[in-house]
Amino acid sequence: MTVSSATDTIAKATDTVNKGVGTLASTYETFLSLLTTQLKNQDPLSPLDNNQFTQQLTAMTGVQQQLLTNQLLTQMLSQNQANVGAGAINLVGKTVTLGTDEAQLTDKGATWTYDLDQAAAQTKLEVVDNNGQVVWTGAAPTNNAGENTFNWNGKTQAGGALPRNTAYHLRITALDSKGASIAATPHVTGLATGVKSIAGQTLITVNGVDATLTAVTAVSSTVPSTAQADTPTTPAT
User: Fold this and answer.
1) 159 three-state secondary structure
2) Average confidence (pLDDT) over 64-85
3) Which residue, among 85, 100, 167, has the nearest Cα to 129 in the 3D structure?
4) Contact in structure between 150 and 140 (CB atoms under 8 Å)
5) Which helix (H) or strand (E) holds 194?
6) Max CA-CA distance within the chain?
7) What are the φ and ψ backbone dihedral angles of 6, each rounded to 5 degrees?
């Protein structure tokens, strides 16, 4: 799974702001020095225009205020990142649904749930490895509108066993009686067993799959189904 680095983004923003503050400080000192020299050497018969003087001060003050605002924003982003991680801990031990097509194959197999917008005449399922290769394909066990469950035993089309503790993806093709496509959405539901931080992103672990919190679509205190505890079955092709 590719995870973007929120920490790097915040660090770069902070560095940019700090450099801006340093540059502003130097520029502000130069500005005051030049302004003082200009006031000392102004022509008494043609003194410095008050409006021009005010505009220059206002411009410098505006830049300073903007940099201070940017500093505050980066601090808030850092604090928010910490709060997200702390809040995610509350999900551990609860049943969590992830909007993902990725499931972990264990000795108990792999289980996906897929939602169909309407009842399908036929639904084709394909299990794909991380290299994009289809390792199993066949008809779905059910074609009902709404939620359906698919348990895969981790074997190839020829019956060979595939590596356990490995992630696989589910591809769904659902058609109605006229051959028109039906929207199908896969997801994975299971017990949240841990929270971790990788590259500044808070990840939650569900059924061995690490996902960002944005992938969480539902949370329940109900104990997840023990369907995977039994020997999984795979629909016949």
Assistant:
1) coil
2) 59
3) 167
4) yes
5) strand 184-198
6) 100
7) -70, -35
Alpha-helix residue ranges (DSSP H) falling in 2-131: 6-40, 50-88
For the chain, helix (H) and strand (E) counts, in that order, are 2, 12
Taking CA 210 as the corner, what is the angle to CA 205 and CA 214, rounded to the nearest 5 degrees?
Answer: 95
- 141: closest CA among 118, 111, 166, 107? 111
pLDDT of 45 strictly over 70: no
Burial code (b: 16+ CB inside 10 Å, e: under 16) for 31-68 equals eeeeeeeeeeeeeeeeeeeeeeeeeeeeebeeebeebe
Task: Determine whether 9 is exposed, middle or buried from the number of CB atoms within 10 Å of its CB (0-12, 13-18, 19+).
Answer: middle
Instruction: Kindly report which listed range (35-49, 58-72, 73-87, 142-156) carries the lowest average pLDDT score.
Output: 73-87
Quick one: which of 98, 94, 95 has its CA closest to 169? 98
Phi, psi of 154 (to 5 degrees): 85, 20
* pLDDT-above-90 percentage for the chain: 37
Which of residues 220 and 143 earns the better pLDDT score? 143
- Enter the tokens of residue 101: 């097509």
